[in-house]
Specification:
- By secondary structure, this protein is an all-alpha fold.
- About 80% of the residues lie in helices and about 0% in strands.
- The chain has eleven helices and no strands.
- Helix 3 runs parallel beside helix 6.
- The protein is globular.
- It starts with a helix and ends with a helix.
Length: about 270
């Protein structure tokens, strides 16, 4: 079993390791090792097209993370107080949002935006002399849709294991509902909220499929990489891929650390 597990890990991560390794290649060809160099990192991030795509991706990911965290946390708090068929229906919708393939979400949001624009653009153009079109804001809207579900599940998991006696004690001491939430509930939920924020940023930053459908004329970093590799893989693209990989890995590690720290604290609270 250990040998089988080792084979699976090598099969999964060897291609990723090759990308990182050849990003330090001094030669012009991706898979032809000519010596060690970091020149492609400098060339990649002095390329105005890459910088623009990176800026767009960071804007989308940051906005998505903040909005998803706010709405997902509010949804978790609301569902925690809901019972019966209504809660079951919303639970099903949350799980469906996570399980639905990205290409389905991309096509569905594209159709929804096109239908909406066709319905309201004539009126807007007549009154305000401009038209709504695809762009950064449509990518943010599409990413928020599925990231809300991720945040909601993380926060609800923490709410389920939270010690209710702390809230009851706060009520007994005549704290207001807002005071109880600010001083008791929010600090206990903060690790899950921060983990949801980091995961939402990561999923949005590295997404290609959904952004490809609804980005319009704007170009995110994954879309730029996809367009570039059709002309051949270069060490410059390997360098960009390595930066994206390391960023995602760091954020996922931080999210996992927060969740584990929360689990270690839970028995003490209980």
């Amino acid at each position: 079993m250990a040998l089988y597990a080792l084979f699976i890990y090598v099969f999964l991560y060897a291609p990723i390791a090759l990308i990182v390794f050849f990003s330090f290649n001094a030669g012009r060809y991706a898979m032809d090792w000519q010596g060690f160099s970091i020149q492609w990192y400098g060339k990649a991030f002095s390329n105005p097209l890459i910088v623009e795509a990176l800026t767009t991706s960071l804007t989308i990911a940051s906005s998505t993370a903040v909005l998803s965290t706010i709405f997902g946390t509010l949804a978790a708090l609301g569902l925690e107080r809901t019972r019966g068929l209504i809660r079951q229906a919303f639970d099903a919708l949350i799980y469906i949002a996570i399980m639905v393939p990205g290409i389905v979400i991309g096509i569905a949001t594209l159709i929804a935006f096109v239908t909406l624009f066709n319905a309201i653009n004539p009126t807007i153009e007549t009154l305000l002399s401009f038209r709504l079109q695809m762009g950064t804001w449509t990518v943010i809207a599409a990413h928020v849709l599925f990231n809300i579900a991720v945040v909601c599940l993380l926060v609800r998991a923490r709410l389920t294991g939270m010690d209710r006696s702390l809230v009851e004690a706060s009520d007994d001491l005549y704290a207001t509902p807002l005071g109880t939430f600010r001083q008791i509930v929010l600090p206990l939920l903060m690790p899950s909220i921060l983990a949801g924020l980091l995961l939402s940023f990561t999923f949005s930053f590295e997404d290609f499929i959904i952004a490809f459908f609804v980005a319009g004329p704007d170009v995110t970093l994954p879309i730029y990489v996809f367009s570039s590799i059709r002309r051949g893989i270069t060490p410059e693209i390997n360098a960009v891929g390595t930066v994206v990989l390391m960023t995602s890995f760091a954020l996922l590690t931080a999210a996992q650390f927060l969740l584990r720290a929360q689990d270690r604290k839970r028995p003490a609270a209980d």
